[in-house]
Design goal:
- By secondary structure, this protein is an all-alpha fold.
- The protein contains 9 helices and no strands.
Length: about 200
C-alpha cells in the first residue's frame, strides 16, 4: 500500500476529533448562553451559522493536508519499500484527505445547531462517521447495502485513494456536498425559525 494511503487509513480518529471541535463551535454557545450575544452581534442567522460552519471547514481542510503529508512521511519511512509512493499518488491523497476531514468539520456545526447539545452532536458524529458503516453491512437487504456506499466516510476514502469503485471522483464530490447541504440546510431552516 502506498504511504499516502496508509496515512489516509489513519484519518478516522482525526476525523472524529475535528468533527467534535466543529460541533463545539456552536453547541458551546448554547451551553454557556453566549448564543444570545452572538445573535445580537450578528443578527442575520444564516450569516452566523455560515461562518460557524466555514471556519471549522477551513481548519479541517488545512489540518488534513498537514496530517496526510506528515503521515505519508512517517509511513514511507516506517514501511520502507512497501510504502513507496509517487507524486501522482500523493496529490489525490492530499486532496481527498482535505475533503475527508473538511466535510465533517463543515457539517458538524449544522448538526450542533439542530441538536443544541454538544453530547448529542458528538454522538451523532460518531454514528454518522463510524457507527452506520459498521452496523449497516450486517443487514442483507440490497438497498441498505447501497446506502453504505454513499456514507460520508466511504465517499471520503474513495476520493482520497482515487478509486473508481463504487463510483468515481465526480460522484464522490456530489455525495459529500449532498451530505453537507442536507444537514446544513436543515440546520439553517431550524436556526432561522426558533428562539435562541
Amino acid at each position: 500500500m502506498p504511504a499516502p494511503f496508509m496515512a489516509l487509513a489513519c484519518l478516522q480518529l482525526a476525523q472524529l476529533f475535528i468533527a467534535t471541535l466543529a460541533a463545539l463551535a456552536i453547541t458551546s454557545e448554547y451551553s454557556s448562553g453566549t448564543i444570545i450575544s452572538s445573535l445580537q452581534a450578528v443578527p442575520v442567522r444564516t450569516r452566523l451559522l455560515g461562518a460557524k460552519a466555514a471556519v471549522p471547514g477551513v481548519v479541517g481542510l488545512g489540518s488534513s493536508v498537514v496530517l496526510v503529508d506528515t503521515g505519508t512521511l512517517v509511513a514511507a519511512l516506517a514501511a520502507g519499500t512497501y510504502g513507496a509512493f509517487t507524486v501522482s499518488e500523493l496529490l489525490p491523497a492530499l486532496a481527498g484527505g482535505g475533503v475527508h476531514l473538511g466535510m465533517p468539520a463543515l457539517v458538524m456545526p449544522g448538526l450542533g445547531a439542530l441538536l443544541r447539545s454538544a453530547a448529542g452532536a458528538i454522538a451523532g458524529a460518531f454514528v454518522l462517521l463510524f457507527g452506520l458503516r459498521q452496523i449497516l453491512p450486517s443487514f442483507t437487504i440490497d438497498w441498505v447495502q447501497r446506502v453504505v456506499g454513499y456514507l460520508p466516510t466511504t465517499a471520503g476514502q474513495v476520493l482520497g485513494t482515487g478509486a473508481v469503485e463504487p463510483y468515481g471522483a465526480a460522484t464522490t464530490i456530489v455525495v459529500l456536498v449532498a451530505w453537507a447541504g442536507v444537514l446544513l440546510g436543515a440546520a439553517m431552516w431550524v436556526f432561522t425559525r426558533r428562539d435562541a
